[in-house]
């Protein structure tokens, strides 16, 4: 049960004044997030033109590891980044500064091949499930026991509908006997309700400018570290309440 910091994602340059876009900015931002209580990082490296790039992994990983030694670091393999199956595969195959894990979206046609490539390179796999269909696809794949974690990521903005999809995805996993740890997160309007839902289910969660820029009170956060600190406070508050309840019995 951890808080992961997702520091930039595919957000445009003008999304937030402190959106980290260079390797050094990501390293500095990552260190601040870890100091604020994040247990690990999820990063979308960018090339010299500011666009997401799987070819920028080595430079970014080296910078972030210098700033955050010993921290578990992951990256995205989103198909939109290179926008070409073969370019995506070639870029991953060329990685030398390996992340600890990489997220793979099961909604993408080439997801099984990307997962196989990551396994061969010794990179952990965080499986991204955004729909019930993604969940059914995942449980039908071989080697489901060899993934690092399940990422239930819901971008539906109507809260009750988003809750329903997350619940159905979890039910598919339970029925299939998938016992891997789960990280649940929302986006924009649903970020904080899903942080609370994750806490109640004893699941991990993630927060940061990739998913939204507001704090629980609706104000715009100063930076990623402020968002992380708010999520960590929610998680720690839940743990304290459980401890108090246990002591009272």
From TrEMBL:
Record-level Gene Ontology MF annotations: 3-keto-5-aminohexanoate cleavage activity
Pfam families, per the entry: BKACE
PANTHER family listed in its UniProt record: 3-KETO-5-AMINOHEXANOATE CLEAVAGE ENZYME-RELATED (PTHR37418), 3-KETO-5-AMINOHEXANOATE CLEAVAGE PROTEIN (PTHR37418:SF1)
Record protein name field: 3-keto-5-aminohexanoate cleavage enzyme
Native organism: Metarhizobium album
């Amino acid at each position: 049960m951890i808080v992961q910091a997702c520091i930039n994602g595919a957000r445009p340059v003008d999304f937030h004044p402190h959106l980290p876009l260079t390797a050094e900015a990501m390293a500095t931002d990552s260190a601040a997030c870890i100091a604020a209580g994040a247990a690990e990082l999820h990063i979308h490296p960018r090339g010299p033109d500011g666009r997401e790039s799987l070819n920028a992994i080595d430079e970014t990983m080296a910078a972030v590891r210098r700033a955050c030694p010993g921290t578990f670091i992951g990256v995205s393999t989103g198909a939109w980044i290179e926008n070409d199956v073969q370019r995506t595969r070639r870029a991953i195959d060329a990685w030398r500064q390996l992340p600890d894990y990489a997220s793979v979206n099961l909604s993408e046609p080439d997801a099984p091949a990307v997962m196989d490539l990551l396994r061969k390179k010794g990179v952990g796999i965080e499986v991204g499930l955004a729909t019930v269909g993604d969940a059914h696809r995942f449980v039908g794949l071989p080697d489901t026991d060899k993934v690092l974690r399940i990422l239930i990521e819901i971008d539906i903005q109507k809260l009750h509908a988003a809750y329903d999809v997350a619940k159905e995805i979890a039910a598919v996993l339970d029925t299939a006997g998938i016992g891997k740890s789960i990280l649940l997160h929302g986006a924009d309007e649903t970020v904080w309700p899903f942080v609370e839902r994750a806490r109640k289910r004893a699941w991990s969660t993630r927060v940061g400018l990739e998913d939204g820029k507001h704090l629980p009170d609706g104000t715009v956060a100063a930076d990623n570290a402020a968002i992380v600190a708010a999520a960590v406070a929610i998680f720690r508050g839940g743990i304290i309440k459980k401890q108090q309840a246990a002591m009272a019995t």
